[in-house]
Amino acid sequence: MVLARWGLVPFFAKSLADFKGFSTFNARAEGITTAATWRGPVKSRRCLVPVDGFYEWKALDDSRKPKKQPFAISLKTDEPMAFAGLWDAWKEPKLKGESLHTADTWLQSFSIITTEANEIMANIHTRMPVILRQRDWAEWLDRDLEKSPPIHLLRPYDSDEMQLAPCNPMVGNVKNNGAEMLECPAPDTPPLNSA
DNA sequence: CCAGACGTTGTT
DNA sequence: GTCTGG
DNA sequence: CCAGACGTTGTT
DNA sequence: GTCTGG
C-alpha cells in the first residue's frame, strides 16, 4: 500500500504546470480502454483505493438559488470498501545536456473510476465510484498482459448493501475535516440571521 | 505535415 | 506516447 | 466538485 | 458570472 496523489498525471505530461486545472480525479468507465489518459493504466496499472465511505451532493432545486445537501455514503456493514482505481508514474522530462545521474523523483498518482449511479445513488447523483467486492480484487489487480482488462467489473454496486445519510454541509469546504463532517445538523434550521 | 489535446461533473 | 484537427 | 475571489500602486 | 485554488 502506498500514498499517492489523487488526480492521475499521465506519463506523457510535459510538465506539471501544463497539467494544472486538468481534471483527472475521476475516470469514466465508459470509453476507458480507448481514452489516451486511461488506456495505458487500464491495461497494466490498475489499483484499489481503500475508503471508509464517500460524500456526494444532491442539488436541491426547490428554491430559486441552487442549494446542495451533502450525503455520506457507506456500506451497511460499515466495513471499508475498495474503489477501482488506475495509477501512473511521472517524472520531469530531462532537459538536453542534463546529467543522466541526477536523482529521478517519480510522482505516483491515481484516479478512481466512475460508473452510472445505482438505484440508491440515483436519488442524489447520476454517477458513483466503482466499488469492487473482495472476491474481485485479485482479478482487478492481475498484471497478466496476455489477458484483456476485466472491464466487466466496472459496474454499479448493489444498492441493497449501501446506505446514505445526510451529513454536515461544512464538508463542502476542503479545509474542514474530521468525524463531525458525518454529523448532520438539525434539518431545516433557518439561519440565525434570517429574521 | 505540425500543433495541440489528452478529463470530469454539473448546470442551464 | 499517440491521436485528432487544421 | 465547492468556496472564494474578482485589483492596483508602491513599499519592504 | 466565471475562474482559481483546495
Description:
With 195 residues, the protein is mainly beta. The protein has one domain: SOS response associated peptidase-like (hypothetical protein yedk fold, Alpha-Beta Complex). Helices cover 11% and strands 29% of the residues. The protein has three helices and ten strands. The strands form two sheets. Strands 1, 2, 3, 6, 7, 8 and 9 form a seven-stranded mixed β-sheet that branches. The N and C termini lie far apart (52 Å). The structure holds four DNA strands.
Largest sheet: 7 strands, mixed
**Range of strand content:** 25-35%
The total strand number stands at 10
What is the averaged pLDDT score? Answer: 86
Low-confidence stretches: none
Task: Describe the secondary structure blueprint for this structure.
Layout: E1 5-6, H1 16-19, E2 26-28, H2 36-44, E3 46-51, E4 54-60, E5 67-75, E6 81-90, E7 107-116, E8 127-129, E9 131-132, H3 134-141, E10 162-166
Parallel strand pairs: 1-7, 2-7
Antiparallel strand pairs: 3-6, 4-5, 5-10, 6-7, 6-9, 7-8
The chain binds four DNA strands through residues 8, 10-13, 20-28, 35-38, 40, 55-57, 59, 66, 68, 111, 114, 125-127, 171-175.
